[in-house]
Amino acid sequence: MLYSPPISEIMSTDIIAVNRDDDLETAELLFKKHKIRHIPVVNGDVIIGMLSYSDLLRISFADAVFEDESEVDALVYNMFTIDQVMVKHVVTVPAAATIKEVAEILSKNEFHALPVVDDGNLVGIVTTTDLINYLLKQL
């Protein structure tokens, strides 16, 4: 049997997160500044939701319709809260979960990131990109 290391070996531990009270403009700035596509929504160290860049694109039609999209985005983002847009029932994995187990979860679902939680606290995040990079290193 092949050895499958724990996800803790490839997960990101430098977590960019938002609180449910933050606004969607803040989230968009974090997505763009850090070049990420998933942001955990936390209450302290406890994950309460996940927000993806796709979630923001779903509520914003400005990119396709208006030249000055920043003004329209601000208007649209003020109509919604992070709490309304985030996914609330988040699938998580422990840091001891194997890379194979995480790959199976991601391959069977419609999301591309999993928060890593130990003792109820968010300790990392793993994405499909992390898995692909791991596989590329193996070749």
Automatic annotation (TrEMBL):
Please indicate if the UniProt record lists Membrane as a keyword: no
Write down the SMART domains for this protein, in alphabetical order. Answer: CBS
> SUPFAM superfamilies in the record, alphabetically?
CBS-domain pair
Superkingdom of origin = Bacteria
Q: What keywords appear on the UniProt entry?
A: CBS domain
Where does the secretion signal sit in this chain? none
* One Pfam family hit: CBS
Residues forming the CBS domain are: 11-69, 86-139
Return the InterPro entries for the record. CBS_dom, CBS_dom_sf, Diverse_CBS-Domain
Protein name per UniProt: CBS domain-containing protein
